[in-house]
# Entry
Amino acid sequence: MLARRRRAVVLFFLLLTVIVLVLGQAMRDETADADAVPAPSRPPTQPEPAAAAVTTPARAAVPPGAADKALTKSTATGRFVFAGGYGPVLGSSGTLRRFKVAVEQRLASGDGGNFAEEIDRILGDPRSWIAGRQFRLQRVPAPAAAEFTVYLASAATSEKICADGGLRTEGFTSCRLAGRVVINNDRWQAAVPGYGAPLAAYRAYAINHEVGHQLGHGHEVCPGEGKLAPVMMQQTYGLQGCVANPWPYVDGERYAGNPVD
# Structure
């Protein structure tokens, strides 16, 4: 009888122990679940804003009369764009002689149309070379055949082109090579000190003088103090007592001086 009671007591304590162990594990599991709060989901990574496009300020136009050095530094590229399209036929009679116009990049916007239009205006003037009625002139686009090209080039580029053809300009004057009329942009923008005439007159002189070489005319000298300078006189280097004159024809007649010896 006593042995049965002992077994019962042992079983009771064993059962109690099992119950305590089970309840303890359950409480630990519940506590662990309470502490394991899910971490808040990380918001989707936002792409970094793209860097704002950096706009390079447009280069300020160099006003006429600015230093040659500044003009040269700001414009020399050595690459040219050709004016597109056909210009008007200039002149009323004679063989049609065609030419192109090219502008060094950065010297003018687009394809240099403004320069091309000014060339048309100068060569189409009734005081220009067409006044002789021996030929007509017309500007044509790059793909077309032409006798010569008028280039507007920076001082540095014009000096290089002229030097390649054996002419020394020191980056100061314009020049003419076979099939190439090279206009120095510094002179185009600012003429020369003491020229005594508006910039438009100097520009007309520069075109008529260099195109005159292309047409077969050589240099001429001042005919006398106070007289008009022949267009084939090197007026860029000084007028030698003459008066500035941009035209080969004056009052309908060819105006010329004696050839340079």
